[in-house]
Amino acid sequence: MHKTEIRVGGLGGQGVILCGIIIGKAASIFDGKHATLIQAFGPEARGSACSAQVTVADEAIGYPYVKNPDILIVMSPDAYTQFAPQLAPGGMLLYENELIKVDGTLPKGVRAFGVPATRFAEELGRRLVLNIVMTGFFAGVTGLLSYESVEQAVKTSVPKGTEDLNLRAFRKGYEYGREQSAGKS
Amino acid sequence: MKLEGFPQTVSLRDGTPVTVRPLAAADAKALLEFYRSLPEEDRLYLKDDVTDAGWLHRFVALVGSGEVVSLIAERGDKVVAEATLYRALRGWSTHVGEIRVSVAPALRRDGLGTSLAGELVKVATRIGVEKMVIEVVENQVGARKMFRKLGFRQEAVLHGHVKDINGTKRNLILASSDVSHVWDAMEALVADFSPSAE
Fold first, then answer.
1. Residue A120 is inside which H or E element, if any?
2. Chain B contact for A173, CB < 8 A?
3. Contact between A74 and A100 (Cβ < 8 Å)
4. Domain range annotation of chain B
5. What is the pLDDT of residues B136-159, one digit of tens each?
């Protein structure tokens, strides 16, 4: 069975959980795979550490917890410090490169891809869509899920009236991810 | 400010394709021709003398400054409609945007004005506008209906505020649409807050 373990980490208010939900939804509802989601919040709503563990597989998943993710998506320096050492050797790090500086502590063979997601979100008009830029970046770099499935998951997961900007944010992240991925392949 | 997602092709009710895109400095002449072609009575309801080349020069400069977002609709090489979003960049109403839509008489009631206004509403919510306002004269029935469809609701009436071409005083209706709640929902969604943590 092919199984991919993903962890998303960041601060409360960055939309970490929504990012995890969209990935899981894209995999399970729109891409015909199986997915599980575990979410962890800090004690406060905003500014505290928060993370989501997503597992995507071709078959039913018996154990949903992620210990050594194949893919780590991080949106804050604290999340990077906490979760980067847990990445599986040869795994993939996707990080917000204007908030996080990657050091030499990554496990062997980890490939790192950065995206200025906050700046992209602000340029699009709202910082709030940073997590959707990250989601698009994830889809673009990894190719784990089809573009259409993640796009559909974004569209059906955000509030009515915000679809237009969220989809733009998704596409922006996706295209940047494809470019970065092509540049490193 | 670069607007993404344009140009767009809008099909009128009879199937005629019209291209919608942001106004560029090179469109100034075509825009002036469009406004000069509008009936005098229509132009009277606009706040500016849109037939004046000086106004056009100032208007294009405002587009460049970000204070104004302007979308034009073209059929062939002719401008057939224009929609504007005005937004104060300073002061106490930077969260408010004002919309104005002008459509060539021959293309009215074909859905073009609604398409343009709808696109501007999307642009407005994207750039942080929380409330949109419009001013319509009481007898602009089509415009009132169009904005009602887009969620605008009457907020005030200024009695006898406008004089039409015959000197008849008419009421000016101020209508608004509060779009702040749209993003409140998104903000709640990305709060990453567990209800069980309460």
1. helix A117-124
2. no
3. yes
4. 8-197
5. 999 999 899 999 988 899 999 999
The dihedral formed by the CA atoms of A166, B123, B173 and B106, expressed in degrees to the nearest 10: -120
* Dihedrals phi, psi of B150, to nearest 5 degrees: -90, 5
Query: How many domains, in total, are found in chain A?
Result: 1
- Locate tokens 């696109």: which residue? B119
Taking residue B196's Cβ as centre, other Cβ atoms within 10 Å add up to: 6
A154 Cβ under 8 Å from any chain B Cβ: no
Residue B3, chain A, CB below 8 Å: the answer is no
Distance separating alpha carbons of residues B39 and A165, to the nearest angstrom? 37
In B, minimum Cα distance to A122 occurs at: B127
**Considering chain B, what is the average pLDDT of its residues?**
88
Q: Which CATH class is domain B8-197?
A: alpha beta
Q: How far apart are the first and last CA of chain A?
A: 26
Per-residue pLDDT band at B195 (split at 50, 70, 90)? very low
- What are the strands, taking DSSP E only, across chain A? 3-11, 34-40, 49-57, 71-74, 92-96, 111-115
Contact yes or no for A126 and B194 at CB 8 A: no
**Is the minimum CB–CB distance between A51 and chain B shorter than 8 Å?**
no
Length of chain B: 198
Q: For residue A14, give the chain B residue with the closest CA.
A: B190
Q: Which of A143, A135, A80 is nearest to A106 (CA)?
A: A80
Amino acid A1: pLDDT: 67
Residues 120-159 of chain B with CB under 8 A from chain A are 122, 125-128
Show the domain range for A175: 3-184
Q: Does B186 touch chain A (CB under 8 A)?
A: yes
Residue A148 belongs to a domain with what CATH number?
Answer: 3.40.920.10
Other CB atoms within a 10 A radius of the CB of residue B111 amount to 18
